[in-house]
DNA sequence: TTTATTTGCAACCGAATGGTTTCTTGTCTT
DNA sequence: AAGACAAGAAACCATTCGGTTGCAAATAAA
């Protein structure tokens, strides 16, 4: 199945590098391609996927197209991570509860001695 | 190219769901598969990838195998995001600097009037 | 108005992905 | 000891991925 989301974008190391590149300033496809050992067209395909995932916006200046990051899109990862952290925290709460119960049981037992 | 890292794991929605499932408690492949509309074997393949990515550990109890999350592995995402956020912050610093320079220029001009 | 530059698109290719079905192995149950 | 259950492995399949080369369109520069 064709998946076009931020997680899909992050899955490729070249795309992660492109994200870091564009984090500081907008760049043209040619400028981006200069940083890698792949053809400009390959970079173009990465750009297309990233645009379809709404992570990139374009800004045409003459024949050049400057691509810039839609940084809000990155928040989706944060949101997912928050969800994850919350569940992990809940697990530890349960663990704490178990420990507390054990402690209580132990005290009850002690009092019976 | 075969990539076996946490970003690759996150790329698939079923695997993300498995992560959230295992965030609260360890589970067997069968138990995990019950939550999805795919075969146990398909789940098994997801588990294998996640184990190879060092995100899952196993704990055999008789004929059952409980898989549990290696939560530290998730920190790699956080680390990458930190990197990203730092670069974005730098961009805004530069912008602030530009604005400050403009303001200074304006003041100099004003003083010439 | 040619010519060069920047970009995107299409077709192709080998490898990886996500699923299936079938089979084997190991461990409980009875 | 025999049958049921849990899990992994292998072979297969259609689709996607990440790359390539070649080409067309638009804009800039000569």
Automatic annotation (TrEMBL), chains A, B:
PROSITE patterns: HTH_ARSR_2 (PS50987)
Domain HTH arsR-type per the UniProt entry, residue ranges: 1-89
Coiled coil stretches, renumbered: none
Tagged with keyword Transcription regulation: yes
Name of this protein: Winged helix-turn-helix transcriptional regulator
Alphabetized Pfam families for the sequence: HTH_20
SUPFAM superfamilies reported for this sequence: Winged helix' DNA-binding domain (SSF46785)
Keywords, ordered alphabetically: DNA-binding, Transcription, Transcription regulation
Organism per entry: Algoriphagus aestuariicola
Taxonomic lineage: Bacteria, Pseudomonadati, Bacteroidota, Cytophagia, Cytophagales
Gene3D superfamilies reported in the protein's UniProt record: Winged helix-like DNA-binding domain superfamily/Winged helix DNA-binding domain (1.10.10.10)
